[in-house]
Specification:
The chain is of the alpha/beta class. Helix content is 33%, strand content 21%. It contains seven helices and seven strands. The strands form two sheets. The protein has a five-stranded mixed beta sheet, with helices on one face. A two-stranded antiparallel sheet has the order 1-2. It is elongated.
Length: 201
C-alpha cells in the first residue's frame, strides 16, 4: 500500500510499488498479507501501521525475484588506489556486454563507477529510453550523480588527464540533461555480485 508517492494506491508487486516511491523523498508505504488488509489501511493513517512493522522482518528486496527485468548493470574495477581503472555495462538478465571503457591510468574505483553510471544514462537518453533502470553497487557513485559533483581526492597528473576530461564531460552532461531512468543500489548481500562485476576480488 502506497499512502504517499508518485501515484498512491494498492499495488500487488514490489516492482510496481518501487515505481511509485522511487525519487519521492517523503514516500510512505507498507506491505500487507492480504488485499483486504491493504484496502483497510488505505482508509487509515500511515502511522497507524508503520509502527507495527517488526524490526526483524526482512525487506521485500531480499528475493532475486524483485530484481527489475527491464534493467542494465554497471561496475568498475581498479588495480590499486589509484591504479589502472576500467568500467563496463551489461544486460542484467543475460550478462551481455553493452559497453566497456578502459583501461585508464591512475584512476579510482569510485570514479569508474560514476563514469559508468553517466555513460549508461547518456546511452539510454540517446536511444530515447526513459524506462530501463540502472543497477550499481556503489552508493558513492549514486550520490555523485545525484549531486552532479565528484568528491574525490585523486590528484590530476599527465597520466590520468583523460580521466579528468571524462569527469568534466560527465558533469557537463548531468547539468545539461534530464532523465527519468531509475538508478538503483544492487543488493549484493541478498543477490550476490552485480552482473557487471569484473570478478577480480
Amino acid at each position: 500500500m502506497v499512502w504517499e508517492g508518485n501515484a498512491p494506491g494498492i499495488y500487488t508487486s514490489w516492482e510496481d510499488c518501487q515505481r511509485q516511491i522511487h525519487g519521492h523523498a517523503t514516500a510512505k508505504y507498507k506491505s500487507f498479507e492480504s488485499k483486504a488488509e491493504a484496502e483497510y489501511a488505505s482508509t487509515r493513517n500511515y502511522y497507524e501501521f508503520i509502527k507495527k512493522t517488526s524490526p526483524s522482518k526482512k525487506s521485500p528486496l531480499q528475493s532475486k525475484n524483485d530484481i527489475l527485468t527491464d534493467s542494465i548493470s554497471v561496475d568498475a574495477a581498479c588495480s590499486g588506489n589509484p591504479g589502472t581503472m576500467e568500467y563496463q555495462c551489461v544486460d542484467t538478465n543475460t550478462g551481455r556486454l553493452i559497453f566497456h571503457q578502459g583501461p585508464f591510468k591512475e584512476g579510482t574505483n569510485n570514479i569508474g563507477e560514476f563514469l559508468a553510471l553517466v555513460h549508461a544514462l547518456a546511452m539510454l537518453k540517446k536511444y530515447n529510453n526513459d524506462h530501463t533502470a540502472i543497477y550499481t553497487d556503489s552508493i558513492t557513485a549514486i550520490s555523485w550523480v545525484k549531486n552532479k559533483k565528484v568528491k574525490s581526492n585523486l590528484a590530476q597528473t599527465k597520466n590520468n588527464a583523460q580521466i579528468f576530461d571524462l569527469i568534466q564531460r560527465a558533469i557537463l552532461w548531468l547539468n545539461t540533461n534530464t532523465y527519468s531512468n531509475k538508478i538503483l543500489k544492487w543488493n549484493t548481500e541478498a543477490w550476490g555480485e552485480i552482473p557487471a562485476d569484473f570478478g577480480r576480488k
